[in-house]
Design goal:
Layout: H1 2-21, E1 35-40, E2 46-50, H2 63-73, E3 79-81, E4 100-102, H3 103-111, H4 116-127, H5 130-143, H6 166-176, H7 180-186, E5 190-194, E6 201-205, E7 217-225, E8 229-238, E9 241-248, H8 258-273
Antiparallel strand pairs: 1-2, 1-9, 3-4, 5-6, 7-8, 8-9
Length: 280
């Protein structure tokens, strides 16, 4: 009898815990992404979440951490010589072996046109090697309390073990937008610059269409790989509130526009359902 009563009490307690820890949102957003989150950047408050703790590939949204670590670790005017090891597959700013560019110009190529070559050039310059730079990225993630995050590459190309969650990626993005240099770069529509030899001119254009979709949009980064699908991390400043959105696995080809639709839905959801209130 005592055992039966104990079991009933335990069941009741578990039900109460389940109710306490389940989060109810005002309405369903109706998005395509495998995982998503909407966060208020200043407070870290979660306004909406869907599978936000699931470890997934994040494609080129990886470059948010690449840029942050580079900016925090080195002077922007440091000179980087382009090497054969920087020539990798995927999106590129079409660097040439032997030329020299500043770290700052490589950061524009990294974040605007999503240059995978720029990512490796930055990684080897800052960390000594891709592996060394990945250690720096992981150390920075640990500082932010991101226990489900592991970086293997600086560009987000599919690699075993390279993953994070929507929740932790939002946390990383919230940290990155505190940096003025980072925000200046991601909010740039296009950027032209020569190499240091002066014999070649670059122009990199921002792939972030969200910048033109909503008033107050100012970033952050697109991404796609065959494993991760379309991904996007967005940032919006509206009525004194900073919103960070993350969508992972938001469709695969030919559904390139799903990530934009999902992001706009998330941002509008936050604007429509939450407001700042003074207490006291």
């Amino acid at each position: 009898m005592f055992q039966k009563r104990s079991k009933k009490l335990l069941s009741a307690a578990l039900c109460v815990l389940s109710l306490c820890f389940s989060v109810q949102y005002p309405q369903a957003v109706g998005i395509s992404a495998a995982a998503a989150i909407l966060m208020e950047a200043d407070s870290g408050r979660i306004l909406y979440a869907q599978n936000s703790d699931q470890e997934l590939g994040i494609a080129s949204t990886t470059k948010i951490m690449t840029a942050l670590v580079a900016i925090e670790s080195c002077a922007l005017d440091e000179v980087v010589e382009i090497k054969q090891s920087h020539m990798v597959e995927g999106s590129s700013m079409y660097l040439k072996v032997g030329e020299e560019l500043t770290l700052e110009t490589l950061l524009y190529g990294l974040m605007l046109c999503s240059g995978n070559d720029a990512a490796v050039a930055i990684a080897e310059h800052v960390g000594g090697s891709v592996e060394g730079f990945a250690e720096m990225m992981n150390a920075r993630a640990d500082e932010l309390g991101c226990s489900h995050t592991r970086f293997v590459t600086p560009n987000g190309l599919d690699a075993e073990g390279h993953c994070t969650t929507a929740a932790e990626l939002a946390k990383i993005a919230s940290e990155a937008i505190k940096n003025e240099t980072f925000v200046k770069i991601i909010n740039t529509a296009s950027h032209s610059f020569p190499n240091l030899e002066g014999n070649r001119q670059y122009q990199v254009n921002n792939k972030d269409s969200f910048l033109q979709m909503m008033d107050g949009a100012f970033g952050i980064k697109t991404g796609f790989t065959a494993d991760a699908g379309y991904c996007f991390v967005g940032a919006l400043n509206r009525d004194g509130r900073l919103y960070i959105s993350v969508v992972l696995g938001s469709g695969w080809p030919p559904n390139k526009s799903y990530k934009w639709k999902d992001t706009v839905k998330l941002m509008n959801y936050g604007i429509d359902n939450y407001e700042k209130q003074a207490i006291g």
